Amino acid sequence: MLKQTASAPSRRECLLLALLLIALLSLSRAGIGIQDSDASRLFPETESAPQDVQVPTTELERWRTRVTWTHKQVPLTTVVSHVPGWTIFDNLFLLNGTVFVVSDDPESVPERDTITSTGMEVQNGAEAVAARLPTDRELRVVTTDEAQELFGTSALLIDGTTWILNDPPQFLAHYYHWSAELFLGFWRTYSSLDPFISANGLSSLPAPRRIWFVHTDADHWKDYASMNQWVFRSVFPSITAEYSADWQDRAEMGHPLILDRVIFTDRSAAMKGQEFFRTGRIASEPFTLPGSVHWWNLIRGAVSKFSGLDTNLYQGSKPVITYISRQEWRGRRKLIQEDHENLVKELYKLRDQHGVEVNVVSMDKLSHAEQFRLAARTTIMMGVHGNGLTSLVWMKPSPKSTVIEFFYPEGFARDYEYTSRMLGMAHYGVWNNETFTQPQLPRVNYPKGFQGNSIPLNGSVVAKLCIERLQLPASTEN
């Protein structure tokens, strides 16, 4: 039996194959294929990449791991947006653990101490303040010539959007400081780049790819109740995290990195801002940036939906009052028991006379999902100054949305007052028989605001305030 053998290709077939290969090569060089949209982030949108800079963009170069350039063509760093403590950069460089801003106009770069710090804990006193001031070890502004000497002709690429959090663990593992301060401030800063976020939370912004905790390990940003990680990962399920050991690993590589886009956050730097001096809240600085009135809807909606409540579909038929009780809490800050019982009685009277929904809850007795769903449905939230009031960030703002906070007489802190107003809701403080609100606020008085288990409260005053805020008919019953 004879074997069949394949005949050699003809000269014509060889020529056609060669032409096909040349055509494919030409198409790839011309950039035909699926483009990685983040490649454009390497240079300002108003400029094209210099001809001598090699930016991988084609389907054949999906692994965008390096940016190269020729002499004097180092990509410039762009300060996209800045307020003290909150800065957005494009093309930010890192080498040996130091942040580098490449600019031939150094005067245009914000003051270093309004961008970053040494990352030490925030303590009082001139010595402690001086210890937090950044040096060339933390951040340097260099010209393109200096960058050429430092970096050579290439850098490893970290693509997409990175949140660099330069804070120490001091305030991270706390639900309020994380969700209502750092995370809220981060999103207010980033969302300023999209002034068209819609009422249902749609945005053109790409989700951040990663968060870097420069001075914190994996265990010291999570709060005891696991609320921080629930919030963060329900909003950004694909995000990755790197910690202080990872930062050190990258520093010890001794090779320059270039990051597409960075939101750089630093508490000590934010404390240099005028808004912080006025409010005492580091998240107040980003609120001077432009943005959509619906900027927080994306975050609120993601958390609510993940918890099982679609706020776009939920149509409450009646107002919801939620009293966050601390009476079963061990130790600090709760109402006098008799005053607590009287408040509950007054709230249930509102329920019976006006048909409002009343919830008296200890948040630690509810699951995470139950807490978020309840907060998202609440019209009036009230309670003694404490961590439970952080749930106000999940309330849906409306003309009737209100937070009522109970303080020891003469005590006051702006944590929840400021947060309520920045989210478009009213806030009232209560000192037993007295109520107050913006603009007639008392001075901040932490010692009195953080008194122990003996806070007096007149429940009928609170009930009357609820009637006013919900625009209910006055009760005819004593």
TrEMBL record:
Molecular functions (GO terms): protein O-acetylglucosaminyltransferase activity
A GO CC term attached to the entry: endoplasmic reticulum
Any single biological process term in GO: protein O-linked glycosylation via mannose
Protein biosynthesis found in the keyword field: no
The entry's keywords: Glycoprotein, Glycosyltransferase, Membrane, Signal, Transferase, Transmembrane, Transmembrane helix
Statement: the UniProt record of this protein carries the keyword Chaperone: no
Compartments it resides in: Membrane
Mode of membrane association: Single-pass membrane protein
Superkingdom of this protein's organism: Eukaryota
Organism per entry: Boletus edulis BED1
One Pfam short name: Glyco_transf_61
Protein's UniProt name: Glycosyltransferase 61 catalytic domain-containing protein
Domain (Glycosyltransferase 61 catalytic) ranges: 310-398
UniProt signal peptide: 1-30
